[in-house]
Amino acid sequence: MDCKKFEKSVVLWLRKKIKSTKRNGIVIGLSGGIDSAVVAALCKKAVGSKKLLCLILPCQSQKSDIIDAKNVAKKLNIKTKTVELTKIYNNLIKLLPKGNRISQANLKPRLRMLTLYYFANKLGYIVAGTGNKSELSVGYFTKYGDGGVDILPIGNLYKSEVRELAWFLEIPERIIKKAPTAGLWSGQTDESEMGITYNKLDNFLKSRRSTVVGRRSAVAEKKLNKKLKELTNLSIHKLFPPEIFRV
Question: What is the value of pTM for the model shown?
Answer without folding.
Answer: 0.88
